[in-house]
């Protein structure tokens, strides 16, 4: 594949998928809801189970937002198109780690989940040619670890709130850059 052709394929995905804005905003909304779950007086194990259930709403919510933002999930004749979905599903491979943490250290479940969520954003920096994804991935992953090490488990609601905030900041960056790129053209 020629370099110019690869760049053209990536640009088409960036424009049609609008740099994944529907997924980023969905993630921000769900992580905000998860922060409220972790404010409750349930056991960490029960909060983790509820977190899994809430997270299952990711694809339906992203699909609904794709209609609002007019994003295209299927770009015909673009050989890179399946990559975005595969990168998203890649985080599912790490779920056995979450199951282990759930069963052995449920207090740390939300930290591990946030680290996995943050880290899975990293390759999108290449696909969307947007350093914001890499920065967000690093800050969520390292920040969640820091919060988990510094705060006691009863304050772990801060981790999903932190994650949600960074996802919303990334979505604002994506939307702002989209607007300013239209002004330049």
UniProtKB/TrEMBL annotation:
Transmembrane segments: 21-39, 45-65, 85-103, 109-126, 133-151, 157-176
Record-linked Pfam families: DUF7010
InterPro entries in alphabetical order: DUF7010
Keywords per UniProt: Membrane, Transmembrane, Transmembrane helix
Organism of origin: Mesonia maritima
Protein name: Uncharacterized protein
